[in-house]
Amino acid sequence: MALTPSNMLPLGTKAPDFKLINTVDNISKSLDELRGAVGTLVMFICNHCPYVIHVNEQLVELANYYSKKEINCIAISSNDVNNYPQDGPKLMQQNAINNNYPFPYLYDNTQEVAKAYDAACTPDFFLFDSHLELVYTGQLDNSRPGNGIPVSGKDLRSAMDALVYKKPINLNQKPSMGCNIKWK
Question: pLDDT per residue over 23-52, tens digit each?
Fold first, then answer.
């Protein structure tokens, strides 16, 4: 596992469009179909990354809470499944079911979506406003596996709350850290 920071896509960037298979129901979904009225959180995750496993419970809580506030969450896995078969669509589906994901878990087979978002690691977070313009990119919080800091989602929750309540979003955004995306 190579500890990798996110690339920090410039704020204001328009969300790159996509249409990917949702591994939970095997139905193709587009960004436009999945976006929220207030905002959209695009998360690059995978099944096997210890950094994602460390925050899975918080991602579920966050998605359940903010969906009621019209921020929809979307998870995407872009890892090379030839070399990392544990991240393949069937196991993604099982992982989503086992973790009670309340969000679609999409498979980016070509890795074009990850490249379009300049995603670098898992987890990697991109919060867009109602116009699909990037308002936050960075870490969930300061917790990492083994560092003893409880997972709270503090940084991302602060940005999502600011979006919901139409407050300024802190521009001091720290990169997420995790396993590198497994490129082909």
Answer: 999 999 999 999 999 999 999 999 999 999
Q: Does the pLDDT value for residue 150 go beyond 90?
A: yes
Spatial contact of 177 and 144, defined as CB atoms under 8 Å apart? yes
Tokens 């977070």 locate to 125
CA gap 81, 99 in Å, rounded: 20
Which residues are CB-contacts of 147 (< 8 A; sequence separation ≥ 6)?
A: none
Q: Where are the alpha helices (DSSP H) in the chain?
A: 31-34, 50-67, 89-98, 112-117, 154-164
Three-state SS at 162:
helix
What is the four-CA torsion angle of 178, 179, 183, 184, rounded to 10 degrees?
-160
Q: What is the pTM of this model?
A: 0.97
The count of residues in the chain is: 184
Distance from C-alpha of 7 to C-alpha of 134, rounded to nearest angstrom:
14
The superfamily (CATH) of domain 3-180 is Glutaredoxin (3.40.30.10)
Sketch the domain layout of the chain as residue ranges.
Answer: 3-180
